[in-house]
Design brief:
2 copies of one chain form a homodimer.
Chain A lengths: L2 E6 L7 H16 L3 E6 L5 H12 L2 H6 L10 H8 L1 H16 L4 E4 L6 E3 L8 E4 L2 H8 L3 E5 L2 E4 L3 E4 L4 H12 L4 E6 L20 E3 H9 L7 H10 L3 E5 L15 E4 L12 E5 L2 E10 L4 H11 L4 E8 L5 E9 L3 H10 L1 H4 L3 E5 L2 E7 L9 H11 L4 E7 L2 E7 L3 H11 L6
Parallel strand pairs in A: 1-2, 1-9, 2-6, 3-6, 9-11, 10-12
Antiparallel strand pairs in A: 4-5, 7-8, 11-12, 13-18, 14-16, 14-17, 15-16, 18-20, 19-20
């Protein structure tokens, strides 16, 4: 008997028919003799409706128009009370469906477990999971159906973990239960070497290390919430990403069914590069002829940080005469207009000749823990792109990742080129 | 400073605009210096949607068609987890709206208070309300926004109080808080001497006793849940029924704004009859030529009770020869077909000549605590109806009520006749 945590996202519980489908996966695992906890999200779209009600109640639009009081000012404790109700509904419904199939099951709200969090409402962090009662019932054959995304904060108030928090709920629960595995059922059947819509030869990875998954996730592969991967890595929870649309009989494959996110040492045959990620949602900002003097970087990036704008890649070219420099960096596309405004206001303080912004860029990354022990990966990558006539505008690297910023028009070509280069095309 | 409990029903919190209207009533009372708890229902229609999801999850329709497993068989604890989410949403939204108006406010779920109930899920009874923390915060100027209808049952599970349970929540909370009054905001502005759609001369009662209100409620005046009135009577909670659609400035009238349900001794000028109620949702069943022998009543009413069919009025006429009797009684119209089926199946056991059912009847009642000290009310009533040519098919009485069963066609005439007879027409 294994102890498994299964997690179903919003599209997998979007209506009662889909909840029934999810329940058939649960039943298969119970029939196989495993002790099961299931974590559920709210029905797809439901959380958005609840958030809209909260903003309407607070008079969000009126307040924004009247100059300033932002959404952040409303009481996160009440936001959490309202928004957490979505998971409460699906947990009860799944318990009922499981019971209708003849299984023992009960729903657990965050406060009932309890899944304790800090007081950072709307984006709380888990501080502890009390699983004694829940685990005893699981081992007694009762399926624990857990409302994801929610917990209980100090003061006995309902908290939520932020968007995508149900993945984190599932991993935290798996860690607390010392579960054998945490199965994330989603609308794709695993993690691919790259986006199959761009590269038809992309293939599903049987296994991927936590570190690689973290890079894949933050580089635009939207399979798992970054936070949940960090937590899984920290706690050593083995996470299986698999499809909730699999036929139940095909799905009885266990770890063969999806992609297992696990420790590096569980991966026997390791490629140098495991995957190619790309992101189009970044924008490039260039400051021309900035005075090349100490403190100028602080004058540029200080105001951006204050405005809560995250800066990703940064490139600085020293000019020929050494007095001026051109400064290029990237931000999220959604933040571009705000970033430009912030920098315009700070023009006198910074001192620059001109300011330019562009969203016609893409970031393409090669990711693999094998890079640690293989030199020359970057050089291979740059020359392959150069052969295709693709100009690299900026570079950033980590121990297991090389990212390049290129013209958006070449994004697909770059991804396909690197996918072939590193031997990832399926045979 | 008074301590008040305000309750808003589903139509009064049907959308955010209406919640804002409800909040303006709350603000008026806070501005007047009172300590306030507000009890809210779910948005109108929301509870029905949630119940439909529960029945779909349980496969209610399929199960009914396949012969038998009734809704009662599904797990009430899961029903309660799902359905209670409606009040969770409105409590959070109202707290946010109040905060947006500059008031201190917070939501309270049943388990947070805690409002303890027994384990009779879906229709639980309140066993205790722990108000120490809640009351301290109220006295400190924070509005307590309480999710109605829900509580916490043994085993730390969410329970609900049955349909209309928010009235009961409000009264129980008022009792536990020793509140000065419990104001029930609803879509009518009080309790009338009779239905104003039938008798335009009907007028709002300034005060009505608990006993009379109980009879009015169970006789078809759907203003307050019977259970909440019983509880108010038992605990001595003064209940004010008033309209949530009043303009806030007109509404600052306190007890002059609606109908106060209170102890008899608080009512100075007491009419003999306070109101005329009528109900059209009963049906008449007649068994012809039943053997007039001991035990026959048990043979008729036993099977009906087993089938959960409530019998209201019962009339038995002994036949001339003393061997047979005709038995007439009333049931809810909705139960008529089932009642007839039960009696058909029991025909051999009971032994009767013929069985008849009819829904063309109405029950009209005169209600008033003054009857206790006034003889002759029944005689007055019967002769007034006779004068109008209205035939009385059955009679039932209590200390403070006389009900007659008549042909449905004469219902309005009977109500108008009795309303005039007992001096209730507004001047």
């Amino acid at each position: 008997m294994s102890l498994l945590v299964l997690k179903f996202g919003g599209t997998s519980v979007a209506d009662v028919d889909r909840i029934r489908k999810a329940a058939s996966h649960v039943k298969r695992e119970v029939d196989a003799g495993h002790a099961i906890a299931v974590v559920v999200s709210a029905m797809a779209g439901h959380t958005n409706q609840l958030v809209a009600l909260v903003e309407q109640a607070w008079g969000f639009k009126e307040r924004s128009q009247n100059g300033g009081e932002a959404s952040a000012h409303y009481d996160g404790r009440e936001y959490d009370a309202v928004v957490s109700s979505g998971e409460q509904v699906t947990s009860g419904l799944l318990a009922l469906v499981l019971q209708s199939m003849g299984l023992k099951a009960r729903s657990w709200q965050g406060w009932q477990i309890p899944l304790q969090t800090d007081a950072a409402h709307r984006a709380a962090r888990i501080t502890g999971v009390g699983v004694d009662d829940l685990k005893a019932r699981m081992l007694d054959g009762e399926v624990a159906v857990v409302a994801g995304f929610q917990g209980i904060a100090p003061g006995n108030r309902i908290s939520t973990l932020g968007r995508g928090g149900s993945d984190t709920s599932a991993v935290a629960l798996a860690a607390a239960l010392s579960a054998d595995r945490c199965d994330i059922y989603t609308d794709v059947d695993g993690v691919y070497t790259t986006d199959p819509r761009v590269v038809p030869k992309a293939h599903r990875l049987a296994r991927i290390s936590y570190e690689e998954m973290l890079e894949m996730a933050s580089q635009g592969a939207k399979v798992l919430q970054t936070r949940s991967v960090e937590l899984a890595m920290q706690k050593g929870v083995r996470v299986l990403v698999r499809s909730s649309f699999d036929a139940p009989d095909q799905a009885g494959l266990g770890e063969a069914a999806g992609t297992l996110v696990c420790n590096e040492d569980e991966i026997v045959e390791q490629n140098v590069v495991s995957g190619i990620a790309y992101a189009r949602d970044e924008a490039k900002v260039t400051l021309l002829k900035v005075a090349d003097k100490p403190g100028v970087a602080a004058q540029v990036f200080g105001p951006l940080a204050e405005a809560n704008i995250n800066v990703d890649m940064i490139v600085q070219n020293v000019s020929e005469d050494g007095r001026y420099t051109d400064l290029t960096f990237t931000v999220q596309s959604a933040d571009l207009d705000r970033a430009l405004e912030v920098l315009r206001k700070a023009k006198d303080a910074i001192g620059y000749l001109d300011l330019r912004g562009s969203t016609d860029i893409a970031k393409v990354s090669a990711i693999g823990v094998g890079m640690r022990s293989h030199a020359g990966v970057a050089a291979q990558m740059f020359s392959a792109l150069a052969e295709k006539g693709i100009n690299i505008e900026a570079i950033s690297t980590s121990e297991i990742k090389i990212s390049v910023l290129i013209d958006a028009a070449y994004a697909e070509l770059a991804v396909r080129t690197l996918h072939s280069l590193f031997g990832l095309d399926s045979r």
